[in-house]
Amino acid sequence: MKMKQAGLAVALLLSMMQSAEAAPIWCVGKFQKLYISESGELFVLPDWRQDWVQLCNMNADSKGITPTVCGTMFAAAKTAVSTKAVTTIAYWDRESPAPAACNVVPTYQNAPAPGYIMLHGD
Questions:
Q1: C-alpha distances in Å from residue 31, one per residue of 24, 62, 78, 79, 109
Q2: Confidence class of residue 94 from pLDDT cuts 50, 70 and 90?
Q3: How far apart (Å, rounded) are the C-alpha atoms in residues 108 and 41?
Q4: pLDDT in the model for residue 23
């Protein structure tokens, strides 16, 4: 009986660890700059990361984001930079686990695809 309880406790612990790993994160702050590479990759420099993060690709599907959606993300990012608006980027388990925290989101092309980008009002 004690072995069964121990096995259940281990299974519960493992399932809790997996749930925590897949938890979404929301990175809130301002985009300091943006650029688009010659191949169409859209990058932002968010103040919560202090390094360049790829959002998507304007020319081709990238990490599940179409060029049409990427164009919309570009418009939102451009507005955020020019107006110094606060933004939220959401990350969750799409192709790989969400980052553990905003300040460790992988940079450049290694960044996961955002689930969404939100512009905050005044």
A1: 20, 21, 9, 10, 17
A2: confident
A3: 9
A4: 86
Nearest CA-CA partner of 93 in 121, 107, 73, 114:
114
As a three-state string, the secondary structure of the chain is: CHHHHHHHHHHHHHHHHHHHHCCCEEEEEEEEEEEECCCCEEEEEECCCCCCEEEEECCCCECCECHHHHHHHHHHHHHHHHHCCEEEEEECCCCCCCCCCHHHCCCECCCCCCCEEEECCC
Whole-model pTM: value is 0.79
The dihedral built from the CA positions of residue 93, 96, 97 and 99, taken in this order, carries a sign that is negative
- What's the chain's average pLDDT? 86
CA distance 70 to 17: 33
